[in-house]
Amino acid sequence: MDYTNLSSIISSPWSQTSESILLEPFTYLLSNKGKEIRSLLIDAFNIWLDVPKEDLEVVRKVVEMLHTGSLLMDDVEDSSLLRRGSPVAHLIFGVPQVSGRNEREDATWKGGQDVELRRFGLIASTLPLVLLSF
Q1: Angle 61-44-40 (CA atoms, 0-180°, nearest 5)?
Q2: Is the pTM value of this prediction over 0.85?
Q3: What's the pLDDT at 112?
Q4: For the segment 103-116, what is each residue's pLDDT rounded down to a tens digit?
Q5: Which end of the chain, C or N, has fewer beta carbons within 10 A?
Q6: Helices (H) and strands (E) in the chain, counts
Q7: What is the spatial distance between Cα 102 and Cα 87, in angstroms, rounded to a whole number?
Q8: Angle separating helix axes 53-77 and 16-30, nearest 10 degrees
């Protein structure tokens, strides 16, 4: 499948500046690489699956983006100070920017029962950005 023109097919309500601001915490965490275990697992499974290289790169990128989004929210939920030896994104950019929500919306997400819903909301809100990045 050809993914090169995907961003031109899908119109985005975001300006490039808004998108850059929204992605700053994500880009910050991506710049500090981890152990890449998911990539190794994808490569291992691909020995049997034999997915074409171009399609496998899409899978690899989506998995990395979803994992990074979950790490961002996990650090907020755990009040972490460091991730991979560096200050966590929410201490640099603030919780609203990391979570993709404004402060008023964050006030409505009280209580432990909403943790998984909040994480799902972050992941779901980043999927259009994942598609637009191709």
Answers
A1: 50
A2: no
A3: 47
A4: 444 444 444 445 44
A5: N
A6: 8, 2
A7: 22
A8: 80
